[in-house]
Amino acid sequence: MRVLGISGSPRSGGNTEILIKLALEQMAQEGFETDFLPLAGRTIKPCTACGGCAKSDKVECVLHDPDFEGVVERFMAADAVIVGSPVYFGSATPQTMALLDRVGYVARCKDNFLRRKPGAAVVVARRAGQNFTFAQLNYFFLISEMIVPGSTYWNVGLALDKGDINQDQEALETIRNLTTNMAWLTKKLAE
Fold this sequence. Notes:
By secondary structure, the protein is of the alpha/beta class. 41% of the residues lie in helices and 15% in strands. A 5-stranded parallel sheet has the order 2-1-3-4-5, sandwiched between helices. Strand 4, helix 5 (130-143) and strand 5 form a beta-alpha-beta unit.
């Protein structure tokens, strides 16, 4: 079984990436193959609602920007998806939403390939905005007919400078519990 973990931060090695990598390490311990997709250094064009994916004979986004190539296939290959984003001005990063909008549009036009896959959001903020961003990412999972596992708290953390998230013990424990639940759910769905 395979899990895709996405860090929607434009900064490499930051707190969101740390939490996503922790989640993937935990999933690997549960026997999952992991796939890490960082958005740092990538330019992902936003969806233009052109409808090209609906008209294409292929399962694809027709915009064809190089940094998006292969992303749809990675979502299709995953049995579960974890999406992380820092909070930027009260919401998920534009990179995160551009990626999810495009994958979501393609999925809905092509047999809804995200349906019934577990999906989980992970959010990091300096001070506030986690709840809205957490909900924003979960809206994507819900409209995609994905299944959202829970944890002991919302999957959020407080951090500013790189590495600060390692001091938020509650966030780290929440992510560990989330991945235990996600692994259990994904295995049950495969039975």
